[in-house]
Amino acid sequence: MKSIKSVEELTTVLNNTAIKDFASVIKRVRIDIEDLESYMTWEEACYTRNCLGKTDDYELILLCWDKGVETPIHGHGGEDCWVYQMEGIVQEIRFEENENEELIEKQRIILEPGKLTYMNDEMGYHTIKNIGSSRAITLHVYASPIHSCKVYDDDKGTFELKELSYHSFKGNSLTPSV
Q1: What's the pLDDT tens digit per position in 7-32?
Q2: Closest by alpha carbon to 106, among 59, 73, 150?
Q3: Which residues, 6+ apart, have CB-to-CB distance to 1 below 8 Å?
Q4: How far is Cα 30 from Cα 36, in angstroms, rounded to an integer?
């Protein structure tokens, strides 16, 4: 199948693809990092969420990871999530809750450029961390936009519902509300 070489081409293909075929679309992504620069925002000691496209059927987000940063352990608001590693090296750690509602680590996955992973709430929870020696970039496709999700609060030892926001939308900078 033909490679996808731009954000515009990716959104056009996603607009015309059934959700069950999103993984095969994402595997065709060959967008040069230079072509993504206008969508990237960076924050020291943080990761940023940059929305490239959004419809009722999907949400396409570019996450930019400073060195050593990670997400809290979280779910996906009932949606399917594909993560495509664009640049750098990240580690995904998956968890499940036992009968005492304790989180148990069940899998670690290293993602290098060109690798794809998939997650949904039925599989449990996960965290992603930039473990490389430089910044990292991941491309996330959600089947239907996620407005909120369960996020684990380490201090309280419990999950809380968190509203999600973007740092930029289609290349225009926003002030995040979270």
Answers
A1: 999 999 999 999 999 999 999 999 99
A2: 73
A3: 24, 28
A4: 11
Residues 6 or more apart from 175 whose CB is under 8 A from it? none
Domains of the chain by range and CATH? Answer: 7-173 (2.60.120.10)
Note the pLDDT tens digit of each residue in 28-49.
999 999 999 999 999 999 999 9
Residues 44-95: tens digit of each pLDDT: 999 999 999 999 999 999 999 999 999 999 999 999 999 999 999 999 999 9
Name the residue with tokens 């990092």.
33
- Cβ-based neighbours of 37, under 8 Å, separated by 6 or more: none
Q: Name residues whose C-beta falls within 8 Å of residue 42's C-beta, 6 or more positions apart in sequence.
A: 48, 64, 66, 135
> What gap in Å lies between CA 98 and CA 93, rounded to an integer?
16
